[in-house]
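We treat protein structure as text, and this decision shapes the records that our systems exchange. Such a record has a labelled line for the sequence and another for the backbone structure tokens. The record that follows is passed on verbatim for readers who wish to inspect the format:
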Amino acid sequence: MRKENPIEKSDIKAFLGPGSQFEGKLLFDEIVRIDGTFRGQVTSKDTLIIGQTADVQAEVHVGTLIISGQFKGNVTATGKVELRAPAKVEGKIETPVLVVEEGVSLDGELSMGKKGENKVVVD
């Protein structure tokens, strides 16, 4: 049950579909979704969506990160990180807001800044 506005497919400006593989640096200004395999670095002030079929190993610096697939690496998000079932996440997450659904596997380190400036939501 998501209480927030869902992202419409028309809002997504780039899409790496299932079966695709990409290695390198990804820089973008609007919403990007990955459902394939990605290795490298991601930088944006906007939203990155890692779909259920995705396998991502990366250093990620974004505004918002939504993970439903497999992720290994380090994340710095200026807005929030959402972990949606059946996500499997391994690594370090630094974010002011963290949303975690039941059924998510998280193995790593979490940093949420100064006390009083952060929020954890468990669905």
About this structure: Residues 9-122 form one domain.
